[in-house]
# Entry
Amino acid sequence: QVQLVESGGGVVQPGRSLRLSCAASGFTFSSYAMHWVRQAPGKGLKWVAIIWHDGSNKFYADSVKGRFTISRDNSKNTLYLQMNSLRAEDTAVYFCARDLDYLPNDIWGQGTLVTVSS
Amino acid sequence: QSALTQPASVSGSPGQSVTISCTGTSNDIGGHNYVSWFQQHPGKAPKLMIYAVSNRPSGVSNRFSASKSGNTASLTISGLQAEDEADYYCSSYTSSNTLDVVFGGGTKLTVL
# Structure
């Protein structure tokens, strides 16, 4: 079935790095742009980044620009989020989501929790 | 990257209708016809309820409808049911000189 499965979350110290993965199945991954969206504990949804279907364009929220990098490997049907210089305020559940018309659409992963704490 | 503005909470009794507003600017909601609405139950991933302002994905109840006027989008839930109790988020994007996706702050719907 059509699904996205995130992995790579965990507890990390401030200033360190972490890479999240999002494995896609059940659809032609290489045909879709993809998003990362995060949600801090008890808070609302916040968009993080988008990457075009072929990786040719990437856009980021101001809060992560210069620290996070979105990428993809279409041969592995996998989306990535490289997170560097992590801060306490990056603590959140991170979701990957399929795109439609530049917005997260109908397919979301279950989320992976990233906790930044010393 | 200002968030879209939603009421923090709304409530209604079973069978009633409620409307949730989502106010943006001419750079996002008012600038095109791409507004989505999501429902999120605690501990779950968001579920798409509406896309492109007023379109329902397959499988979403026709009790959910949406529209847009100017810089404000609205989601209406009719015939409220207990399972509708959840958080609701609107989303749109700006594309002035870069692409920026914005969400509303979320609205907690309580079914009384």
